Amino acid sequence: MRLQGKVALVTGGARGIGRAIAELFAEQGARVIVGDIDAPGGSASGRITWRDLDVRDLASWQAATDAVVEEHQRIDVLVNNAGLVGAYEPIDEISLQDWTRVVEVNQTGTFYGMRTVIPHMRAQGGGSIVNVSSIWGMVGCPGVAAYQASKAAVRMMTKNAALSYVADGIRVNSLHPGIADTPMIAEQDTAITAEVIAETPMRRAAAPREIAYGALFLASDEASYVTGIELPVDGGYTAP
Ligand SMILES: NC(=O)c1ccc[n+]([C@@H]2O[C@H](COP(=O)([O-])OP(=O)(O)OC[C@H]3O[C@@H](n4cnc5c(N)ncnc54)[C@H](O)[C@@H]3O)[C@@H](O)[C@H]2O)c1
After folding, report:
1. 115 Cβ partners below 8 Å, 6+ apart?
2. Is 112 part of the annotated catalytic residue set?
């Protein structure tokens, strides 16, 4: 029960990594609110509730956050997990629409989330924010220009927030998954997935739960002296 009594808001928790995080957090004693544009299918446990949230929309954030605070009086943990790859083209080929679509979710969505939740965390005396970036926010690869830019921005917004709110008792860290077995990856070209797995020292994709354990550590009081870090959970991808 590593999150006993905590209230956690997890974005993009209807499927994939976000869903694994929501389920693990609930098992560890948290009351979890999943904010997503899609309702979760299948078995959401009794400790998980779902709320309509579009991370691109500040008003949607405000409505979701107000509802959580009204019901639970606090938000201890925010996981900014909602994200998409969206477009695989390099800078001179990506359409401006695709650029904006990806940046709006991955970067601006994370900014809006922190902007909306931080005042509540300050007022209650602290909290933990986990921003889900990627190995592609740490190391370069060809193509996927908007994804790389937005995930690198998440990494640095995390450090900025960690330093800005350290005196308020708010810890802010980024999580950098390697390739994980989720619907997002199932939807992409299998050749791309095979190439990334071949370049991963462990030679396999992660189960979403293996990524979720990284979020659990950062969210919990076990990480009470941890802020501003970037935690790769990547099968060794960024080690070389
Ligand atoms: N799967 C991987 O290999 C991998 C690797 C590194 C980083 N990541 C990151 O992990 C996070 C989760 O990835 P995943 O593979 O589980 O993705 P996924 O596509 O399987 O799930 C993403 C979830 O986010 C939700 N979402 C999308 N846009 C949203 C919006 N505007 N508002 C609210 N919710 C929205 C979707 O409805 C979905 O439930 C993403 O930020 C992704 O970039 C994934």
Report:
1. 58, 61
2. no
Q: Are residues 28 and 2 in contact, defined by beta-carbon separation less than 8 angstroms?
A: yes
Tell whether ligand 1 has an atom less than 6 A from the beta carbon of residue 137. no
* Three-class SS state of 162: helix
Q: Is 82 in the pocket of ligand 1 (CB under 6 A)?
A: yes
Nearest CA to ligand 1 atom 25: 12
pLDDT for 61-103, tens place per residue? 999 999 999 999 999 999 999 999 999 999 999 999 999 999 9
Query: Where are the chain's structural domains?
Result: 7-233
Q: Which residues does the chain have with pLDDT short of 50?
A: none
Q: How far is the CA of 161 from the centre of ligand 1 (A)?
A: 22
Architecture of domain 7-233: 3-Layer(aba) Sandwich (3.40)
- Here the tokens at position 43 are 């078995």
